[in-house]
Amino acid sequence: MTVDQTLSSRINLMRILLIGGIVFVHVPYDAQTSPFFTGTFGLFDWLRVFLGESLFRIGVPCLSAISGYLLFRRGYAGFDYGKTLRTKATTVLTPFLLWNLGLLLAVLLIQSVSLGIGYFPDLWQAEPRDLLSQALALEGFPVNLPLYFLRDLLVCILLSPILAYLVRRAPVATCAALFILAVLPGVTIGIVLKKSILFSFTFGMALALHGRDTRALDRYRLVGAAGTLALAALLAIGLYSTGPQYPLWLDLARNILSIVGALGVWLLSGMLIETRLGRTLAGTGSLSFWIFCGHYPLLVGLWMVWNRMAGDSNYPVFYLAAITATFVILFFSNRIIARLAPATYRVLTGSRARDRRAVVLQAEPGSKANETPAGAALRPQRGEA
Fold first, then answer.
1. pLDDT at position 118, please?
2. Helices 195-209 and 171-183: crossing angle, nearest 10°?
3. Residues 193-206: pLDDT tens digits?
């Protein structure tokens, strides 16, 4: 199935919007003194729950579906497993290792002088097995928390021949089984750290392998987008009223919305891509991957500085300042590194080109033009989103 210019632009737009949203999910806070469910700051508390606990939890499953779809966009016959694995070593594995191990070394350094403990896991006191997991995410979340997505994406790519076999022969049964596993709270499957990634990746594969028209529902885009926002707002009311420990049914509802809400985001992209702002965002290319990999350590660093300067007071100021500073710093650092050290930039972004003349797709978060087929939603307290 040929992916045309409009579809390419919509996918690129979704990447920058969803990864930007993931930044809101990862803004740190003190779980012991969190005011978000007590109404201390009024409407702000609910708005933070709406953005971080409800709406932008859609980001990871939606990015996973994009990755699965693009991996098989040329159909099963056009899929070269060996070539894909070699490509992913550059576009996914290498950035994961560089960004995660770089942060790991930085944390070891600052914790050696008794800084950063409580903000990051205590690496100097960690067992070798736990330290290895922090470094490589073999059994648990990496020290650069959002990069678990790249880890799970690699697992899905490794499993792609098996998943493709299943969805070619029994797409409904396969997707239904994985969906149930994904939304049930407390159920683990071991091979991935976030269950929704496996389902969404497989669902995206099914769409590509069975040639489904991804724009078939565009005529309902206004209703679909508005409905998704309304459901996210309704969910936020329930989360705000019962949090921070959600009842089982509400946790289930949040898991379901995080997956099915991807349809609403897709429909919303169909409207936004027709605007000048939408087309501009769709052309930001590798900036979204840069934001994805760099936002978590920056947010935690800002939180460390804030606590030393202002303690836990006036959290809304920190929230707004940290988000603004993160986007500004990452925007300009992306441009500076790309200009002054292009070779380093290419390695850090997995060879994601900034050439705006090319419009071929790739399957990881933040990727733009490239020639190969196919990257939290967790808060800093390291519980599963």
1. 86
2. 160
3. 999 999 999 999 99
345 phi and psi, to 5 degrees? -60, -45
Is 365 within 8 Å of 292 (Cβ atoms)?
yes
- Cα–Cα distance for residue pair 183/385, rounded to 1 Å: 11
**Crossing angle for the helix pair 287-310 and 94-111, to the nearest 10 degrees:** 10
Helix extents (H) in the chain? 5-25, 43-49, 59-71, 81-88, 94-111, 128-136, 148-158, 160-169, 171-183, 195-209, 221-242, 248-272, 276-282, 287-310, 315-340, 342-348
Report d(CA 25, CA 40) in Å as an integer.
20
Q: What is the DSSP string of 64-88?
A: HHHHHHHHTTT-STT--HHHHHHHH
| Residue 27 banded pLDDT, cuts 50, 70, 90 | very high
First and final C-alpha spacing in the chain: 33
Q: Around Cβ 342, how many Cβ atoms within 10 Å?
A: 11
For the chain, the residue count is: 385
State mean pLDDT over 13-18. Answer: 95
Give the pLDDT score at 369.
38
What is the model's pTM? 0.89
Higher pLDDT, 364 or 8: 8
Q: Half-sphere exposure of 260 toward its Cβ, with a 13 Å CA cutoff?
A: 16
Which residues are CB-contacts of 320 (< 8 A; sequence separation ≥ 6)? none
Q: For residue 189, with 0-12 CB atoms within 10 Å meaning exposed, 13-18 middle and 19 or more buried, which class applies?
A: exposed
* Residue 363 predicted with pLDDT over 60: no
* Cis before 95 (ω within 30): no
List the domain boundaries for the chain: 5-348
Both tokens of 96, joined, read: 């994961």
Please tell me which residue, 7 or 193, carries the higher pLDDT value.
Answer: 193
Is 84 a residue whose pLDDT tops 60?
A: yes
Q: Which two tokens stand for residue 141?
A: 């979340």
Q: Can you read off the two tokens belonging to residue 30?
A: 């003190």
